[in-house]
Design a protein that fits this description.
By secondary structure, this protein is an all-alpha fold. 69% of the residues lie in helices and 1% in strands. Helix 6 crosses helix 7, helix 6 packs across helix 9 and helix 10 packs across helix 11.
Length: 312
Protein backbone atom coordinates (compact mmCIF):
# COMPACT_ATOMS: atom_id res chain seq x y z
CA UNK A 1 0.00 0.00 0.00
CA UNK A 2 2.79 2.39 0.94
CA UNK A 3 4.71 1.51 -2.18
CA UNK A 4 1.67 2.21 -4.34
CA UNK A 5 1.23 5.64 -2.71
CA UNK A 6 4.90 6.53 -3.21
CA UNK A 7 4.75 5.45 -6.85
CA UNK A 8 1.61 7.55 -7.47
CA UNK A 9 3.23 10.56 -5.82
CA UNK A 10 6.33 10.12 -7.93
CA UNK A 11 4.27 9.84 -11.10
CA UNK A 12 2.34 13.02 -10.28
CA UNK A 13 5.55 14.89 -9.55
CA UNK A 14 7.15 13.71 -12.76
CA UNK A 15 4.08 14.61 -14.80
CA UNK A 16 3.98 18.10 -13.22
CA UNK A 17 7.64 18.65 -13.96
CA UNK A 18 7.12 17.55 -17.57
CA UNK A 19 4.23 19.94 -17.98
CA UNK A 20 6.24 22.81 -16.49
CA UNK A 21 9.12 22.07 -18.86
CA UNK A 22 6.72 21.90 -21.79
CA UNK A 23 5.20 25.27 -20.87
CA UNK A 24 8.65 26.80 -20.52
CA UNK A 25 9.66 25.52 -23.95
CA UNK A 26 6.36 26.77 -25.41
CA UNK A 27 6.82 30.25 -23.87
CA UNK A 28 10.41 30.42 -25.01
CA UNK A 29 9.53 29.39 -28.56
CA UNK A 30 6.62 31.84 -28.64
CA UNK A 31 8.77 34.79 -27.52
CA UNK A 32 11.55 33.82 -29.89
CA UNK A 33 9.09 33.55 -32.76
CA UNK A 34 7.57 36.94 -31.93
CA UNK A 35 10.99 38.62 -31.82
CA UNK A 36 12.01 37.02 -35.11
CA UNK A 37 8.75 38.08 -36.75
CA UNK A 38 9.08 41.64 -35.46
CA UNK A 39 12.68 41.79 -36.66
CA UNK A 40 11.73 40.60 -40.14
CA UNK A 41 8.78 43.00 -40.26
CA UNK A 42 10.94 46.01 -39.34
CA UNK A 43 13.55 44.94 -41.88
CA UNK A 44 10.94 44.73 -44.63
CA UNK A 45 9.43 48.10 -43.63
CA UNK A 46 12.90 49.70 -43.67
CA UNK A 47 13.60 48.35 -47.14
CA UNK A 48 10.20 49.59 -48.35
CA UNK A 49 10.81 53.04 -46.82
CA UNK A 50 14.23 53.33 -48.45
CA UNK A 51 12.79 52.26 -51.79
CA UNK A 52 9.96 54.82 -51.43
CA UNK A 53 12.40 57.62 -50.60
CA UNK A 54 14.56 56.68 -53.58
CA UNK A 55 11.53 56.65 -55.85
CA UNK A 56 10.38 60.07 -54.60
CA UNK A 57 13.90 61.43 -55.12
CA UNK A 58 13.85 60.24 -58.73
CA UNK A 59 10.24 61.33 -59.31
CA UNK A 60 9.32 64.29 -57.08
CA UNK A 61 5.80 64.39 -58.48
CA UNK A 62 5.00 61.25 -56.48
CA UNK A 63 5.59 63.18 -53.24
CA UNK A 64 3.13 65.85 -54.39
CA UNK A 65 0.54 63.20 -55.15
CA UNK A 66 0.98 61.67 -51.69
CA UNK A 67 0.54 65.13 -50.13
CA UNK A 68 -2.73 65.55 -52.02
CA UNK A 69 -3.96 62.18 -50.70
CA UNK A 70 -3.18 63.14 -47.10
CA UNK A 71 -6.32 64.05 -45.04
CA UNK A 72 -4.29 66.62 -43.13
CA UNK A 73 -3.58 68.54 -46.33
CA UNK A 74 -7.31 68.69 -47.12
CA UNK A 75 -8.09 69.90 -43.60
CA UNK A 76 -5.48 72.63 -43.93
CA UNK A 77 -6.91 73.72 -47.27
CA UNK A 78 -10.43 73.79 -45.82
CA UNK A 79 -9.23 75.92 -42.92
CA UNK A 80 -7.61 78.33 -45.34
CA UNK A 81 -10.79 78.60 -47.36
CA UNK A 82 -12.91 79.09 -44.23
CA UNK A 83 -10.67 81.88 -43.01
CA UNK A 84 -10.79 83.73 -46.33
CA UNK A 85 -12.73 87.01 -46.20
CA UNK A 86 -16.16 87.06 -47.74
CA UNK A 87 -15.69 90.21 -49.79
CA UNK A 88 -12.66 89.05 -51.78
CA UNK A 89 -13.58 91.16 -54.80
CA UNK A 90 -13.22 94.38 -52.81
CA UNK A 91 -9.83 93.30 -51.49
CA UNK A 92 -8.54 92.11 -54.87
CA UNK A 93 -9.32 95.42 -56.54
CA UNK A 94 -6.46 97.79 -55.64
CA UNK A 95 -7.03 101.47 -55.21
CA UNK A 96 -5.98 103.67 -58.14
CA UNK A 97 -2.92 105.03 -56.32
CA UNK A 98 -1.94 101.52 -55.22
CA UNK A 99 -2.31 100.25 -58.78
CA UNK A 100 -0.06 103.03 -60.09
CA UNK A 101 2.52 102.36 -57.40
CA UNK A 102 2.42 98.64 -58.16
CA UNK A 103 2.84 99.28 -61.88
CA UNK A 104 5.74 101.64 -61.22
CA UNK A 105 7.34 99.09 -58.91
CA UNK A 106 7.01 96.35 -61.52
CA UNK A 107 8.49 98.63 -64.18
CA UNK A 108 11.42 99.56 -61.94
CA UNK A 109 12.00 95.89 -61.13
CA UNK A 110 11.95 95.01 -64.82
CA UNK A 111 14.45 97.75 -65.62
CA UNK A 112 16.73 96.70 -62.76
CA UNK A 113 16.53 93.06 -63.86
CA UNK A 114 17.31 93.98 -67.44
CA UNK A 115 20.23 96.16 -66.33
CA UNK A 116 21.60 93.41 -64.07
CA UNK A 117 21.28 90.88 -66.90
CA UNK A 118 23.04 93.26 -69.26
CA UNK A 119 25.87 93.88 -66.79
CA UNK A 120 26.24 90.15 -66.18
CA UNK A 121 26.42 89.44 -69.91
CA UNK A 122 28.85 92.32 -70.37
CA UNK A 123 31.07 91.03 -67.58
CA UNK A 124 31.11 87.58 -69.16
CA UNK A 125 32.25 88.97 -72.50
CA UNK A 126 34.90 91.17 -70.89
CA UNK A 127 36.14 88.33 -68.66
CA UNK A 128 36.46 85.90 -71.54
CA UNK A 129 38.31 88.43 -73.72
CA UNK A 130 40.74 89.54 -71.00
CA UNK A 131 41.41 85.93 -69.98
CA UNK A 132 42.47 85.07 -73.51
CA UNK A 133 44.37 88.29 -74.16
CA UNK A 134 46.45 88.23 -70.98
CA UNK A 135 46.58 84.45 -70.55
CA UNK A 136 45.03 84.48 -67.09
CA UNK A 137 42.80 81.70 -65.74
CA UNK A 138 39.12 82.41 -66.37
CA UNK A 139 38.14 82.05 -62.69
CA UNK A 140 40.86 84.47 -61.59
CA UNK A 141 39.95 86.93 -64.35
CA UNK A 142 36.29 86.71 -63.36
CA UNK A 143 37.19 87.60 -59.76
CA UNK A 144 39.25 90.61 -60.86
CA UNK A 145 36.58 91.84 -63.29
CA UNK A 146 33.86 91.46 -60.64
CA UNK A 147 35.96 93.42 -58.13
CA UNK A 148 36.51 96.17 -60.71
CA UNK A 149 32.80 96.39 -61.48
CA UNK A 150 31.80 96.51 -57.81
CA UNK A 151 34.41 99.16 -57.03
CA UNK A 152 33.40 101.21 -60.08
CA UNK A 153 29.75 101.10 -59.03
CA UNK A 154 30.63 102.23 -55.52
CA UNK A 155 32.89 105.15 -56.47
CA UNK A 156 31.05 106.00 -59.73
CA UNK A 157 33.82 105.33 -62.23
CA UNK A 158 33.76 103.39 -65.51
CA UNK A 159 34.82 99.79 -64.74
CA UNK A 160 36.28 99.43 -68.23
CA UNK A 161 38.64 102.32 -67.54
CA UNK A 162 39.78 100.61 -64.34
CA UNK A 163 40.35 97.36 -66.22
CA UNK A 164 42.25 99.21 -68.96
CA UNK A 165 44.63 100.72 -66.41
CA UNK A 166 45.10 97.29 -64.80
CA UNK A 167 45.87 95.79 -68.21
CA UNK A 168 48.55 98.33 -69.13
CA UNK A 169 49.99 98.67 -65.64
CA UNK A 170 50.48 95.01 -64.71
CA UNK A 171 49.03 92.76 -67.41
CA UNK A 172 46.69 91.44 -64.65
CA UNK A 173 49.56 90.22 -62.50
CA UNK A 174 48.49 90.92 -58.87
CA UNK A 175 52.05 90.50 -57.61
CA UNK A 176 53.80 92.79 -60.08
CA UNK A 177 56.24 95.37 -58.71
CA UNK A 178 58.08 98.14 -60.54
CA UNK A 179 61.69 99.23 -59.90
CA UNK A 180 60.43 102.29 -57.99
CA UNK A 181 58.11 100.27 -55.72
CA UNK A 182 54.72 100.48 -57.47
CA UNK A 183 52.86 97.28 -56.62
CA UNK A 184 49.95 95.12 -57.63
CA UNK A 185 47.39 95.16 -60.38
CA UNK A 186 47.19 98.95 -60.64
CA UNK A 187 50.83 99.59 -59.65
CA UNK A 188 50.02 101.68 -56.60
CA UNK A 189 52.79 103.41 -54.67
CA UNK A 190 51.79 102.00 -51.29
CA UNK A 191 54.24 104.18 -49.34
CA UNK A 192 52.77 107.31 -50.89
CA UNK A 193 49.14 106.31 -50.47
CA UNK A 194 49.48 104.49 -47.15
CA UNK A 195 46.54 106.46 -45.72
CA UNK A 196 44.19 104.83 -48.25
CA UNK A 197 45.42 101.36 -47.28
CA UNK A 198 44.98 102.04 -43.55
CA UNK A 199 41.44 100.69 -43.33
CA UNK A 200 42.29 97.77 -45.64
CA UNK A 201 45.09 96.29 -43.55
CA UNK A 202 47.99 98.66 -44.13
CA UNK A 203 50.54 98.92 -46.94
CA UNK A 204 50.95 95.14 -47.01
CA UNK A 205 47.46 94.99 -48.54
CA UNK A 206 48.88 96.49 -51.72
CA UNK A 207 49.32 92.95 -53.05
CA UNK A 208 45.75 92.04 -52.14
CA UNK A 209 43.95 92.21 -55.52
CA UNK A 210 40.69 93.62 -54.15
CA UNK A 211 42.41 96.22 -51.95
CA UNK A 212 44.76 97.21 -54.77
CA UNK A 213 41.88 97.68 -57.20
CA UNK A 214 39.97 99.81 -54.71
CA UNK A 215 42.87 102.08 -53.79
CA UNK A 216 44.08 102.35 -57.38
CA UNK A 217 40.57 103.23 -58.55
CA UNK A 218 40.20 105.91 -55.87
CA UNK A 219 43.53 107.42 -56.92
CA UNK A 220 42.56 107.28 -60.59
CA UNK A 221 39.22 108.97 -59.93
CA UNK A 222 40.91 111.67 -57.87
CA UNK A 223 43.44 112.36 -60.63
CA UNK A 224 40.76 112.46 -63.34
CA UNK A 225 38.74 114.91 -61.23
CA UNK A 226 41.77 117.08 -60.59
CA UNK A 227 42.99 116.91 -64.18
CA UNK A 228 39.57 117.69 -65.63
CA UNK A 229 39.70 114.84 -68.18
CA UNK A 230 40.60 111.17 -68.47
CA UNK A 231 43.72 112.01 -70.48
CA UNK A 232 44.97 114.46 -67.84
CA UNK A 233 44.09 112.01 -65.06
CA UNK A 234 46.09 109.24 -66.73
CA UNK A 235 49.06 111.58 -67.09
CA UNK A 236 48.94 112.27 -63.36
CA UNK A 237 48.46 108.58 -62.61
CA UNK A 238 51.63 107.58 -64.48
CA UNK A 239 53.59 110.24 -62.61
CA UNK A 240 54.13 112.55 -65.57
CA UNK A 241 52.11 115.47 -64.26
CA UNK A 242 55.11 117.80 -64.37
CA UNK A 243 56.30 116.56 -67.79
CA UNK A 244 55.23 117.56 -71.28
CA UNK A 245 54.65 113.94 -72.33
CA UNK A 246 53.59 110.70 -70.68
CA UNK A 247 55.58 108.60 -73.19
CA UNK A 248 52.41 107.23 -74.78
CA UNK A 249 50.98 105.78 -71.58
CA UNK A 250 47.64 107.52 -71.93
CA UNK A 251 47.29 106.45 -75.55
CA UNK A 252 47.90 102.80 -74.61
CA UNK A 253 45.30 102.89 -71.83
CA UNK A 254 42.72 104.64 -74.03
CA UNK A 255 43.34 102.19 -76.90
CA UNK A 256 42.69 99.28 -74.52
CA UNK A 257 39.68 101.15 -73.16
CA UNK A 258 38.19 101.45 -76.66
CA UNK A 259 38.73 97.75 -77.30
CA UNK A 260 37.05 96.83 -74.01
CA UNK A 261 34.07 99.05 -74.84
CA UNK A 262 33.62 97.19 -78.13
CA UNK A 263 33.91 93.85 -76.33
CA UNK A 264 31.33 94.98 -73.76
CA UNK A 265 28.93 95.79 -76.62
CA UNK A 266 29.23 92.23 -77.91
CA UNK A 267 31.49 92.99 -80.85
CA UNK A 268 34.12 90.54 -82.05
CA UNK A 269 37.46 92.05 -81.10
CA UNK A 270 40.70 90.09 -81.74
CA UNK A 271 42.27 89.15 -78.42
CA UNK A 272 45.77 89.32 -79.88
CA UNK A 273 47.28 92.08 -81.96
CA UNK A 274 50.64 93.52 -82.87
CA UNK A 275 50.02 96.52 -80.63
CA UNK A 276 52.79 97.31 -78.20
CA UNK A 277 50.31 97.17 -75.31
CA UNK A 278 48.93 93.71 -76.03
CA UNK A 279 49.66 91.51 -73.06
CA UNK A 280 52.78 93.37 -71.91
CA UNK A 281 52.57 94.99 -68.47
CA UNK A 282 54.02 98.44 -67.98
CA UNK A 283 56.08 98.01 -64.83
CA UNK A 284 58.26 101.08 -65.14
CA UNK A 285 57.30 104.68 -64.57
CA UNK A 286 59.19 107.37 -66.49
CA UNK A 287 59.49 109.47 -63.37
CA UNK A 288 57.79 110.00 -60.08
CA UNK A 289 55.64 113.04 -59.69
CA UNK A 290 56.86 115.83 -57.44
CA UNK A 291 54.13 114.88 -54.95
CA UNK A 292 55.27 111.26 -54.73
CA UNK A 293 58.95 112.16 -54.44
CA UNK A 294 58.17 114.58 -51.63
CA UNK A 295 56.19 111.98 -49.76
CA UNK A 296 58.91 109.38 -50.17
CA UNK A 297 61.31 111.86 -48.62
CA UNK A 298 59.09 112.11 -45.56
CA UNK A 299 57.41 115.42 -46.34
CA UNK A 300 53.80 114.25 -45.88
CA UNK A 301 53.04 117.01 -43.40
CA UNK A 302 54.26 119.71 -45.75
CA UNK A 303 52.13 118.35 -48.61
CA UNK A 304 49.05 118.08 -46.39
CA UNK A 305 49.40 121.68 -45.35
CA UNK A 306 49.94 122.80 -48.94
CA UNK A 307 46.88 120.74 -49.90
CA UNK A 308 48.65 119.29 -52.93
CA UNK A 309 47.08 115.84 -52.50
CA UNK A 310 43.53 116.12 -51.18
CA UNK A 311 42.19 113.09 -49.36
CA UNK A 312 39.57 111.01 -51.16
Amino acid sequence: MLNRFIRATFDVTRKTASQSAAWAVFARDTVSGFITTAHHTLLVLGIVAIAALGLMFVKPEIADQLKELSPFAEASADDTVDEAPEDTAALDAPAPSTAKATAASHAATAVATEEATGNSRQQQWVTSWLSKRYRVATDATNMLVSAAYMTAKEIKLDPLLILSVMAIESGFNPFAESPVGAQGLMQVMAKVHHDKFAELGGVKAALNPVANIRVGSLILKDYVTRGGSVEAGLKLYVGAGASDSDSGYGAKVLAEYRRLKEVAMGKKVPAFSTSASSGKPRLERKTESAEESAKLEGQEDHLAKADQIPSL
